[in-house]
Amino acid sequence: MTMYAFVVPLLLGFALGGLSAFTAAFSRRWGERGGQMVTIVLRNVVAIPLWGIGFIIAWRAEAPLLYTPGVLTQTLGWLLVIAGAVPVIWGHLELGWRTHMPSITDTLVRTGLYSRVRHPIYGGGILIFAGLALMRPTSAGMLASATGIVWAVVQARLEELDLVQRLPAYREYMTRIPRFIPRFR
Fold it and tell me: pLDDT, tens digit, for every residue of 41-75?
């Protein structure tokens, strides 16, 4: 297996994950339940496992280190992974099933983390990807992490296109609440 064998499942997973952001369009085409099922299959059954496999392959790839990670970079990497895991887990708990089963009948969550940022799960994912890059500084690991960061930003924007169609109050929410980084007043 080549050092960059991870690219195909990673990019395919991210692309299919991006398609899963169009619940409103799928629901117009196939009805509420059909649209929800398409989204569930694209995201949970196909996309997430594919990009997970891509990351595992990248992490395990026999690639030269770009630098030798020391205690400081390993510690910082772990701190970023832990700091990123907090909003990922908390965000999933606050959204509940809506995270994995979006529907055109969803309601806007404006409490908890979602009162501070619009996308705490993707923001946390960005921190995790950055931490993983520090912990595994190979060309494969860095490329997979950079791709993950770009994907999180693009996915958040794609979901916002869908959310303004499904949730009438989302457009106003976007004007008040930042995407990833909370405002500290």
Answer: 999 999 999 999 999 999 999 888 999 999 999 99
3-state secondary structure 15-54: HHHHHCCCHHHHHHHHHHHHHHHHHHHHHHHHHHHHHHHH
Helix (H, G, I), strand (E, B) or coil at 95: helix
Residues forming a β-bridge with 65: 138
Place of tokens 């500084």: 137
Dihedral-angle region of residue 112 (phi above 0 means left; psi in -120 to 50 means alpha; beta otherwise) = left
99 Cβ neighbours under 8 A, 6+ residues apart: 91, 92, 121
Count Cβ atoms below 10 Å from residue 48 Cβ, excluding itself: 16
- What is the length of the chain? 185
Residue 152 half-sphere exposure toward CB, CA atoms < 13 A: 22
Of 2, 143, 3, whose CA–CA distance to 63 is shortest? Answer: 3
Taking the alpha carbons at both ends of the chain, their separation in whole angstroms is 51
C-alpha closest to that of 161 among 22, 14, 20, 19: 22
The alpha carbon of residue 70 and the mean position of all alpha carbons in its chain are separated, in whole angstroms, by: 28
pTM of the model: 0.92
